[in-house]
Task: structure prediction
Amino acid sequence: MHVLDFTPASEVQALYSQHHGWLQSWLHRKLGNAFDAADLAQDTFVRLLQRRRADGYGDEPRALLTHIAKGLVIDHWRRQEVEHAYMEAIAHLPDRHVPSEETRLLVLDALCRIESMLRDLPEKTQQIFLMAQLDGLKYAEIAEQIGMALITVKRHMRTAFMACMMTV
Result:
């Protein structure tokens, strides 16, 4: 007698068998690229495995797969935007100063984490953080420029630095 195995891994295996082709086609239509679609389809099922839901994956597995895949597509597009901006920034460098492929990937990873951290901050906190970090302004100069109390600028910076520490 064959006993069905309903462990999370076997349930994901069944979902994979039933829905992988559909998901990859859906992603291909969204991305216009079969290679990225294949990668994100795999990543979707990896995320599903990591969830380990005790209650199973519901009656609408495609809805769950679509939800996970949409988040991955958004992350993919954001990474492409960051990568494009980085490549434009280094395009003007002489060949001897162009970073190696390994360095480029490390920098891109760091830039993506910074972008993600900034995206999650309130807009005013982002503005203050960037004024301090990119423009090199002192807190008092920022307070004066945006018409805010110095203590409030310091609070925004503390919030931003805490967010930085959480992304490490």
